[in-house]
Predict the structure.
Amino acid sequence: MSGLVTGEAVALGMDPAKLPSRALATTIDLVVYWTGFIGLMFLLAAATSSLDDAAVAAVSIGALLLILVGIPIAVETLTRGRSLGKLACGLRVVRDDGGPIRFRHALVRGAVGVVEIQLSLGVIACIASLVSVRGRRLGDVFGGTLVVRERVPVQHSQLMPPAPPWLAAQLAGVDLSGVPEGLWLAVRQYLSRMWQLDPQVSWSMAERLAADVAACTGARVPQGTPPAAFLAAVVAERQSRDARRMFGAGGPPAGPFGGAQPPVMTAPVMPPPQPVQAVQPVQPAPAMLSKPAAPEPPRTGFAPPA
């Protein structure tokens, strides 16, 4: 990285754009803008054919300022510092503190760029970029801006080898609650970037960090153990404790249902069928089995004729 530092002593992870990439992006922008200006002039020539020479000159100057000054300022303001050429080259205009630019930054850059890029054919801008440490032209200096690279080559970092089992067992009972969060952050950042540092610088940084961790935890760095391996073992021990604290004694979840067994869906148990008992028919009473007899007429002693 370039080592860009803000006023608050915060290092910015940005790379200033080099002169060739900036020149290519500016060339792409100028080609697009001049092509649009020429096309607009043809349209204005057909539309202002009935006007006098003074009116045609005024319209031409207005179109020139609009295409070559107004539109670049509007594009950088709306896109937060990414014109068409910068987008193609992977560049962006930012403030000195790394924040996105606003209208006043784009206005100063566009106004100064008319003189140092277009009127001088880019000579002033090239000289200023070569003299500046961060490749800034005059528009960047007056506007408080900087052109940086957005597409940075990916750096493949090597992984830290796992700590030895005996060292992990030795740190199992160490109290890690006294280590501040700032020190944990410094240790993790060192372990992720230790392969990018000079070997001597990396060893001295590891010794200082290991001494700070040992002072906070009371654990000693074993004799003959590299300080980086000790730091890796301490970080691994803290991560394992956090995992046990979060997921219980069983460790991290082994499946989509965590450490518990997944629920088993069973079919409802139906009771066994009861035997069907035969229904005994109800025996009717004897009086109900036959038709009731007609009542016998009273006897009066009178016999009907034969």
Observations:
- The chain is about 50% helix and 5% strand.
- Strands lie at 4-5, 11-12, 15-16, 91-95, 145-149.
